[in-house]
Design a protein that fits this description.
3% of the residues lie in helices and 50% in strands. By secondary structure, it is mostly beta strands.
Length: 302
């Protein structure tokens, strides 16, 4: 026999007015990425009300203990908590309370989740020298275990910090680039969402902009000019510039050995995928700078 039917049978075989459960929702709050809700449980019947158990829902469960029963006119408080992933459009979770109330052996407990929290605003770390380390503390919503995120050009390490004096939650980002280029990654903040992080790693040459945003809908018309600047004391001598299909350019000297202007032109269908412009310095086999081509619809690094 099912537990609910057993409870109802026990209640029906005793004398006096049957137990009657009344549930009154109390205050609820969102804290640390979780929703806490409280309910008052009261026995308005004439016999003891047996409190069997709370059946959890996805991500929701009881965080306080139930007494085994409630005497007539007695009451108690039940606290529940809901946390974890939330489906799109989901705003209510429903737990089930099993009791000996013969009218409703299984009583639903509805928890309003409220709107899903938005992801934190993207963080732009700026230009960082290869081999150096940039440390920045950024505010994030809620409390969460930040996790290290690896990317193509380096690694962004993240660790949660104690709250600031005004209660603001902080995460410390530590970025150490290994190779030059635009670095895009995302930090998993748990219930607080995902924190997008962008930075530009550079070595001997700085490029402004660090990536070329391609308006594919216009066939490459209106590509920006790129300014190349020698970052160290040694002069920069450019041997050649390699372009992907669909792109051409003209390199002009602004300051000999120090600064160049690379004007870009579309020459047909814009390349898709991981296309890039490669700048090769005199006497070097590998590019001294790689400038990726990205869709104009993608978020810029700055």
């Amino acid at each position: 026999m099912a537990p609910a039917l057993v409870l109802a049978f026990v209640a029906a075989c005793t004398s006096g007015e049957a137990p009657r459960l009344t549930v009154t929702p109390l205050a609820s709050e969102t804290r640390n990425g979780a929703v806490r809700a409280a309910f008052e449980l009261r026995n308005d019947g004439g016999r003891p009300l047996i409190l069997d158990r709370v059946v959890p829902a996805c991500g929701c469960g009881a965080v306080s203990r139930l007494p085994p029963d409630l005497a007539p006119r007695a009451h108690t408080r039940l606290d529940v908590e809901c946390r974890g992933p939330r489906l799109a459009g989901e705003d209510v979770h429903e737990l089930t309370l099993r009791t000996s109330d013969p009218r409703r052996p299984e009583t639903p407990l509805r928890v309003e989740l409220g709107p899903a929290p938005a992801d934190p605003a993207p963080i732009y770390l700026g230009y960082v020298t290869v081999g150096a380390t940039l440390v920045r503390d950024v505010p994030v919503p809620g409390v969460s275990p930040a996790r290290t995120a690896a990317s193509g050009g380096g690694e962004v390490a993240a660790e949660p910090l104690p709250p600031a004096a005004d209660g603001t939650r902080l995460v410390r980002l530590r970025f150490t680039p290994r190779t030059p280029g635009v670095v895009r990654t995302a930090i998993d903040l748990g219930p607080a969402g995902v924190l997008p992080v962008t930075a530009v790693a550079w070595d001997r040459v700085l490029a402004f902009p660090a990536e070329v945003r391609v308006p594919r809908a216009t066939g490459g018309a209106g590509l920006p000019a790129v300014i190349l600047v020698a970052a160290g004391e040694a002069p920069l001598a450019i041997a050649r510039v390699d372009y992907p299909p669909g792109v051409a350019g003209e390199l002009r000297t602004v300051v000999p050995g120090r600064q160049y202007r690379l004007s870009l032109y579309g020459r047909g269908p814009m390349p898709a995928g991981d296309a890039a412009i490669r700048v090769v310095a005199a006497g070097a086999a590998d590019p001294v700078l790689v400038i990726p081509l990205v869709d104009a619809a993608a978020p810029p690094p700055a």
